[in-house]
């Protein structure tokens, strides 16, 4: 995958609300199989789509890309032998030593591409319109839907759902939304009204773990407010929860089901390599060893004891 294929894949992941990292080659020192402007996508599960270099660069870029997704901070990598750069490395750049027979080097910029927040507002009061305008001003994906149009397809587990139906079917909307298990579920109502709604749903058999996640009333407590101020209070609570990492996003509920690519250390050069089915390998005394290139494998097979002693030290 390259060129427009990478851009198409980016759009697909963004539509699905999947976080990923974009790696771009900004400088190269030949000989190298990569080119300036080459791009690749790294997913949170460690899959790489695109091209940023061969077996020497890929494991390091995947490892750093997953970390970029996790902490949400971009980083600039310099891949090569430390002897190539000496004291000339600028501040803020991460040097990743790789032992490559080509003796090439790469500078790669890796940036996180995180999902845009998705807010679903159920209702049609003046407050809901104000809230929708404010959320869109923040660049959030915002859907303002009527109660009759709110369905299972209106939200996902990454969505934030606010029910503001002002007593017109609050119970049905909360029950419907709670079953979707969104990252946030709030009800615009007084505390007393909220307790009544949740109590009624509990009697109807709605699971307690779903009801416990409903915020009623929604928003920060600012006392008596106008509908415009109420919209600000609700948005402020959502911003606060997101900034604190307190939203119940799927990635925070359970580990990913996808397995990270296996890695191994080349016993000859010390480089981290992928340990997949297509990797260069050699069996020695019942143990499989992986290599970055055929030269390292040949050196190991000619004298495995030498390299295994170095690894043990």
Condensed summary:
By secondary structure, the chain is α/β, with parallel strands linked by helices. Helices cover 35% and strands 24% of the residues. A hairpin with a 6-residue loop joins strand 12 (263-265) and strand 13.
What can you see in these coordinates?
The chain is α/β, with parallel strands linked by helices. 35% of the residues lie in helices and 24% in strands. The protein contains eleven helices and 15 strands. It has helices at 4-15, 58-71, 82-85, 126-137, 170-179, 191-203, 208-211, 227-243, 250-253, 294-302, 304-312, and strands at residues 20-29, 39-43, 48-50, 75-80, 93-97, 105-113, 118-122, 141-145, 159-163, 184-187, 214-215, 263-265, 272-274, 280-284, 287-291. Helix 4 (126-137) crosses helix 8. The radius of gyration is 26 Å and the shape is elongated. Residues 252-258 have low confidence and may be disordered.
Topology overview:
Elements: H1 4-15, E1 20-29, E2 39-43, E3 48-50, H2 58-71, E4 75-80, H3 82-85, E5 93-97, E6 105-113, E7 118-122, H4 126-137, E8 141-145, E9 159-163, H5 170-179, E10 184-187, H6 191-203, H7 208-211, E11 214-215, H8 227-243, H9 250-253, E12 263-265, E13 272-274, E14 280-284, E15 287-291, H10 294-302, H11 304-312
Parallel strand pairs: 4-5, 7-8, 7-9, 9-10, 10-11
Antiparallel strand pairs: 1-2, 1-6, 2-3, 4-6, 12-13, 14-15
